[in-house]
Design a protein that fits this description.
This protein folds into 3 domains: 131 residues, no CATH class; 110 residues, Beta Barrel (Butyryl-CoA Dehydrogenase, subunit A, domain 2); 262 residues, Butyryl-CoA Dehydrogenase, subunit A, domain 3 (Up-down Bundle). The protein is 54% helix and 13% strand. The chain has 17 helices and 11 strands. Strand 10 and strand 11 form a beta hairpin.
Length: 529
């Protein structure tokens, strides 16, 4: 890898001042775990790079459908290097369930970043989450999930519905102390790898729509010792090849109901919040990997008689990267911090929980935009070799392109944001938090951010339902952008003037629609970190 990546072999914890400052702001106790973070930073810069590239190019998961005796097994064969790395990474899921912080988990996920590997860890975390909160009778499974002896999964999507979970048709029929599932799931990450999956299904007699769905735990092997479902095939994906994704058939599959059947959709939305935050933070981790490649490239490559870094347009592009990476990172961790304060709530939830969900939609949606653009720009700055698969940058862009799709694309995030506003009044907490932050900053750019928040929410409130949907995607972006301006100003109070400058640059570019002001050209502290 040393011939294919500048960032390979570096300690990604030590190379990331933004992460240090964000953790110091939201989790001052991170210093007690700095040795672990440093170790993960080294792992992220070496073994994660090696294994992710190897799996993507040479050794994707392979579905083994039968054993030597002709028995159906439907198990994936992983590269031994991937198996060993996953076992080493598995403990990163433990902190929230052992008195630690969600921010601890997400910081480690940010350092790993690779979405295929982190997806396996995230869907395992979600499975442990549900057992921890709502199915403690399966505590033995949870412990296996947290130590890497089991892998989990979340299987919600069906071919006829996609993100429209209310269209799901997988049926559940009670059978004594368990249930039997019949039907199919179409996009199942972890297929052939998972030992126990979270599956949405509609109990016999339940109403149509999302509120008729219950949530079930479905083991790979049933209590009789038989294979419990079949994996029809694995998908041929553009990226995220480390996580096997396939189609699963349930034919009388044994399942165990989680909590109350009528709360199934709420449990499902909870675990979606966990993965949406992972998507947001890992998306910025992907962007940072590409950013590290570029920071080294511009110090090495010469054109038109000077180093790339000395060209004004290169500094402009580095500024764009720095603004997006810092803004997206602080938004992702802010949303995770608010989720951490509410995650132990159960239905019916308080306003605190609904606000955490509101922020998760903003963070998931806008960080995906940032990840896609930063990695695209990194390819461009590398020139022709940035488009070659043999080098690292091209893969990071492919990997980034899943982040707008996973866990609900932008239209779904916008609709869910509207629902959180209209039914739960979650935007009131947003106003209560961000207006004082922006007033305290007191700059022209902060005032512009306040005007964007107030104007965007007023337009949604004044619109008829269909018009509100029409404006919702733009609103999701605008509110996220204004939030990032406020959060960067707030971060500047503890992390220094650089973040106030980044806040002003963010506002100029994304709220006021201006080009980055040329004063940044002479400010390497802004764009060189």
């Amino acid at each position: 890898m040393r011939y294919q990546s500048y960032a390979y072999g570096q300690n990604h914890w030590e190379r990331d001042p933004d992460l240090h400052h964000v953790l110091a702001h939201y989790w001052p106790g991170f210093t007690a775990h700095e040795d672990e973070l440093r170790r993960f930073g080294a792992l992220a810069g070496r073994e994660v790079y090696e294994v992710a590239y190897h799996v993507d190019h040479d050794a994707p998961p392979v579905l083994v459908m039968h054993d030597l005796d002709g028995n159906r097994v439907d198990r994936v064969r992983l590269s031994p290097a991937q198996e060993a790395l996953l076992r080493e990474l598995a403990p990163m899921n433990r902190p929230p369930y052992e008195g630690g912080r969600w921010l601890h988990h997400y910081a480690l996920g940010y350092l790993v970043a690779d979405p295929g590997l982190y997806c396996i860890l995230t869907i395992t975390n979600q499975t442990a989450y549900v057992i921890h909160k709502y199915a403690p009778e399966f505590a033995e499974w949870k412990e296996k999930l947290l130590r890497g002896a089991f892998w989990g999964a979340t299987w919600m999507t069906e071919i006829q519905g996609g993100s429209d979970l209310g269209a799901n048709t997988l049926q559940a029929v009670r059978d004594g102390d368990a249930w039997r599932l019949d039907g199919e799931k179409y996009f199942c990450s972890g297929a052939g790898l998972t030992d126990v999956a979270l599956v949405t299904a509609r109990p016999e007699g339940a109403p149509a729509g999302p509120k008729g769905l219950a949530l079930f735990l479905v083991p790979r092997i049933n209590r009789a010792g038989a294979l419990n479902y079949h994996v029809r095939r694995l998908k041929d994906k553009s990226a995220t090849r480390a996580v096997p994704s396939g189609e699963v058939e349930f034919r009388g599959s044994e399942a165990f109901q989680v909590g109350e059947a009528e709360h199934g959709i709420y449990y499902t939305l909870e675990v979606l919040t966990v993965s949406r935050l992972a998507n947001a933070i890992a998306g910025m981790g992907i962007a940072r990997k590409a950013h590290l490649e570029v920071l080294e490239r511009v110090q090495r490559r010469r054109s038109f008689g000077q180093l790339l870094v000395n060209h004004p347009l290169i500094r402009r592009d580095l500024t764009d990267m720095a603004v997006r990476v810092a803004g997206g990172l602080v938004l992702g961790f802010h949303a995770a911090d608010r989720f951490e304060k509410a995650w132990e709530e159960r239905p019916p939830y308080t306003a605190r929980y609904h606000y955490a969900r509101f922020l998760s939609h903003l963070a998931k949606n806008r960080t995906a935009d940032h990840a896609a653009e930063v990695t695209r720009l990194a390819m461009e700055l590398f020139g022709g070799i940035g488009f070659l698969e043999e080098y690292a940058v091209a893969r990071w862009h492919r990997e980034a392109l899943i982040t707008p799709i996973w866990e609900g694309p932008s239209n779904i995030q916008a609709l869910d944001l509207l629902e959180a506003m209209h039914k739960k009044r979650a935007h009131e907490a947003f106003l209560a938090e961000f207006i004082p932050i922006l007033e305290k900053a007191g700059t022209h750019e902060a005032r512009a951010a306040r005007e964007v928040i107030e104007g965007t929410l007023a337009r949604l409130a004044d619109s008829e339902p269909e018009a509100a949907q029409w404006y919702a995607k733009d609103a999701t972006i605008r509110l996220a952008d204004a939030a990032q301006v406020g959060l960067l100003y707030q971060l500047a109070e503890t992390a220094g003037e650089r973040y106030a400058r980044l806040a002003a640059l963010y506002a100029r570019r994304f709220l006021l629609g201006e080009e980055y002001p040329a004063w940044a050209l002479r400010e390497p502290a802004v764009w060189s970190a």
